[in-house]
Amino acid sequence: MEKKGGMVWRCTQAGRVLEVVSTDFSTLPENPAGKSFLNLLNQTSKELATEWFQKFPAQTSLLPNMRLAQDPTGQVFTLGLTQTGKELWLFWSTVQPLLPPPPSLPGTVYTEDDQDSSHTHSGWEPEVQHEELLEELSRVNNELVNARRELIRQNIELHRLHRKQGESKTI
């Protein structure tokens, strides 16, 4: 059964995990601290993530359908990555980046009991208006993703300042 939620890991520029900042998963298959996040993925996910990671920061797309190795639940994650200073912040989300089209679209076959929520689009040819709408939705989605990244960067900075303030009070 899929659990909804996510994780935030603080990493070195090489991808080595420094800290699990937050997690909605009380038990991880193994403690990630000190290890490369790539080595914690199953083989297929590792190959895709390695290629994705090598393209960062030139390409900052999300990476869907990633699975941890040694995870008996088979939880699927979407990975996101951002850089602040000399650190990388890796975001693990169980929310998939793209929603399937609603079942009311012509040519869409939808079955409730499909485990993977697969949809078939045979015969559906979008009209120009549909393409323009999809492009506009994509643009708005990109703006939301960028706004979320900015909020995450600001939260990271607040986290650092809070930690620094706590350290200065103990001195």
Task: Based on the model shown, name its key terms.
single chain, 171 residues, Beta-Lactamase, 5-stranded antiparallel β-sheet, 2 helices
Short description:
32% of the residues lie in helices and 20% in strands.
Characterise this structure:
- The protein has helices at about 45-55, 130-170, and strands at about 5-10, 15-25, 65, 75-85, 85-95.
- It is α+β, with helices and mostly antiparallel strands and about 170 residues long.
- Strands 2-1-5-4-3 form a 5-stranded antiparallel sheet.
- Strand 4 and strand 5 form a beta hairpin.
- The model is unreliable at about 100-125 (pLDDT under 50).
- Are there runs of 5+ residues with pLDDT below 50, and where? 99-124
CATH topology of the largest domain: Beta-Lactamase
Helical content, roughly?
A: 25-40%
For the record, the count of structural domains works out to: 2
- The helix-and-strand class reads alpha+beta
* Reported CATH architecture of the largest domain: 2-Layer Sandwich
Give the strand tally: 5
Largest sheet strand order: 2-1-5-4-3
Keywords: Coiled coil
Coiled coil: 130-164
What is the topology?
Blueprint: E1 6-12, E2 17-23, H1 43-54, E3 63-67, E4 76-84, E5 87-93, H2 128-170
Antiparallel strand pairs: 1-2, 1-5, 3-4, 4-5
